[in-house]
Amino acid sequence: MQLIKDGAFIADPWTHVGDEDALPGAPDAGVIVSLERWQRESNELIASGRPLGVQLKSGQDPSEIARDLEKLALVGLEFPAYRNGRAYSYASLLRQRYGFKGEVRAVGNVLRDQFLYMIRCGFDALEVTDNITPAIYAEMIGEFTHSYQTAADDRPAVMSLRQRLAAKNAAD
Amino acid sequence: MYRYDEFDHQLVRERVKQFRGQVARRLSGEITEDEFKPLRLMNGVYLQLHAYMLRIAVPYGTLSSRQLRKLAELARKYDRGYGHFTTRQNLQLNWPALKDMPNLIEELATVEMHCIQTSGNCIRNVTSDHYAGAAEGEVEDPRIICEIIRQWSTFHPEFSYLPRKFKIAVSATEHDRAAIRVHDIGIRVLKNGLGETGYEVWIGGGLGRTPIIGKKVGDFIRREDLLSYLEAALRVYNMSGRRDNMYKSRIKILVHEIGEAEMKRRVEAEFEEIRKEGRLQLPDEEVERIRRYFAAPAFETLPDQSAELDAEMAKDEDFAHWVRQNTVKHKTPGYAIVNISLKPIGGTPGDISSEQMEAVADLAEKYAFSELRAAHEQNLTFAHVRKQDLRAVYDGLSAAGLATPNIGLISDQIACPGLDYCALANARSIPLAQEISERFADLKLQHDIGRLHINISGCINACGHHHVGHIGILGVDKKGIENYQITLGGAADEIASVGDIIGPGFTDDKIVDAIETIVMTYLDIRQEGEIFLDTYRRVGLQPFKDKLYATH
Ligand code: SF4
């Protein structure tokens, strides 16, 4: 597994911590815990002063952590199978509805042909398999110059580009 | 019709390049068939019984002569010289080689066509009324909003991995030819009391294993809000639709499980939030830009009656017969809508050869403003033909073997590909359709029977829409033996209904007799002016059952 964050391949500064595992020794190491553990131990986790992340499974709607988001620096969203696209909506909601500014990370079955859709829905971090290279990533992200629809990223929809073009042509 | 601008062209070109890369990865063995599957499925490539099949999108069923000529050429070059029109207004090629597909779709792109989202669990090709722009009482051309939806849904990042496929249909007349009540979302364009145009939205209709008629959840969605509303509905479905069982994953099951009221509540709550964000507001300029593409062609001012046509009809009984059966009243005086039957007696419903495509393209160019439609009944339509030209159109179609005068009659059947092509089939559909049309080949008899829709599916997936056939036939597997189950009383229009199962099924050597028995029973008991469906709605299953199972 490797991590792509904001387009760069980096060493993962975060640690996934299982429900029964002890927290890592370094007191400032960021941890990603399940929703269940978060709900059980949020007070202790917040008191530890570490960067905190919660990972949602498919079926765990982000509304469940909507009120906690200011305490979180990361939300992980699981793709249990590439076919299961719920997390695209979860990520969109986190960005568009809840205005979450922290990291939104795709975890699980993350196919290269889905990178662009993920980025467009607001994921800024992808956990990918080791065979993905920066060249592959760049190719997958760059396949389409324009998009017909708005999403959680800041690409303008083709519709607005057309209006801009028409306005420019009228001005010329 | 809609023409690509630079943005549309670029997107389709980039898609060709992307798919070329994906096919290359597959052919080199870099990825397995399993890994290739989600990729090819986003591009209309299916693995059939014998070969890959390619499904080409015909957005809302509208084609130009130029496009049809290109399809003819591609069918000849990469396939066996014919194509197949489906109930989704698309065209399928049954035998192209995988290695040729990138070139094939590259050539398609030169005529502004593609295969995007003709398969996979995404928003599929939007379908519409094949009489769009020509139908009487139309609020506005439904293809305007179809094109807007086509663009919005193309590569939608949030909705490309839905629980299941998602089909949208749009109709703009009271009489519904687009079957909006049996779609995941059906949209009816209408006007409110103030004369503003908006949309009535139906959700959760569908056929397949569990046929359900859609529920009306939106009474009047304003034009500028339509995309917000669709996004809301799709988001609710994407988050809450079942993913544990593919037979329970369509939106109709979600609506069924949480109830119509709860569905409406969730969609409306999401809609309010999205509307607040404002980013999906549909600008008037874009609507107007697209509307211009669908402006009515330059109709001449003509008297509604054509003396030439009347004289020809008086002279030639066959021609007169075709005019009465295959043409429909146009909203403009002096014009007619012409339906081209792809159901010759004994033929394969929806099949068309390259030569026939070329003949149709030529006729459209000469007599129908270079434009034609694919109808969901697997026929073609010229939307606008001058009545005085009907004779020439008929002669041209006759020469190409396309003038079968059977639109809406018993031999105008819908049939899925069935066991001849499809890996999922239990039974053959096409040979059965052929046998039935041969049994009722006599046109006088067909006429006497009147409007009767027979729909045939080779398995419960219902691609042949058997649930909404006046008579539906479903292929079931009974211990390895092909068996056919009959339903009666289905309809897909504005009084949509799902057919009722009449009783035990029939083997392939008995099924055509059974259909004949049903039809003869109807002829016996019908009342003046009734078509089969009316009679059925009046008397129910029993009289048919009695006759059908009397001797068993
Ligand atoms: S209804 Fe069944 S047999 Fe017919 S095409 Fe669809 S999946 Fe194949």
Write up this protein.
The complex is a heterodimer of chains A (172) and B (552). Chain A has a single domain (2-146), classed as Aldolase class I (TIM Barrel, Alpha-Beta Barrel). Chain A is 31% helix and 21% strand. The mean pLDDT of chain A is 95. The N and C termini of chain A lie far apart (52 Å). An eight-stranded mixed β-sheet of chain A has the order 2-1-8-7-6-5-4-3. By secondary structure, chain A is α/β, with parallel strands linked by helices. Chain B has 552 residues and is of the alpha+beta class. Chain B folds into four domains: 6-109, Sulfite Reductase Hemoprotein, domain 2, CATH 3.90.480; 134-293, 2-Layer Sandwich (Sulfite Reductase Hemoprotein, domain 1), CATH 3.30.413.10; 306-399, Sulfite Reductase Hemoprotein, domain 2; 414-551, Sulfite Reductase Hemoprotein, domain 1 (2-Layer Sandwich). In chain B, 38% of the residues lie in helices and 17% in strands. Chain B has helices at residues 6-27, 33-41, 65-78, 101-110, 142-153, 226-240, 251-258, 260-277, 284-293, 307-315, 317-326, 354-367, 390-399, 430-439, 443-449, 511-525, 532-539, 542-549, and strands at residues 45-47, 52-56, 62-64, 82-85, 91-93, 127-128, 168-171, 185-191, 197-203, 215-222, 327-329, 335-340, 351-353, 371-374, 380-386, 414-415, 454-457, 471-478, 481-488, 500-501, 506-507. In chain B, strands 16, 17, 18, 19, 20 and 21 form a six-stranded mixed β-sheet that branches. Chain B has a five-stranded antiparallel β-sheet with strand order 1-2-5-4-13. Chain B has a five-stranded antiparallel β-sheet with strand order 3-14-15-12-11. In chain B, helix 5 packs across helix 9. Chain B is globular, with a radius of gyration of 23 Å. The mean pLDDT of chain B is 95. The interface between A and B is large, with 37 and 39 residues. The complex binds iron/sulfur cluster (SF4). The site of iron/sulfur cluster has 14 residues of chain B, from loops.
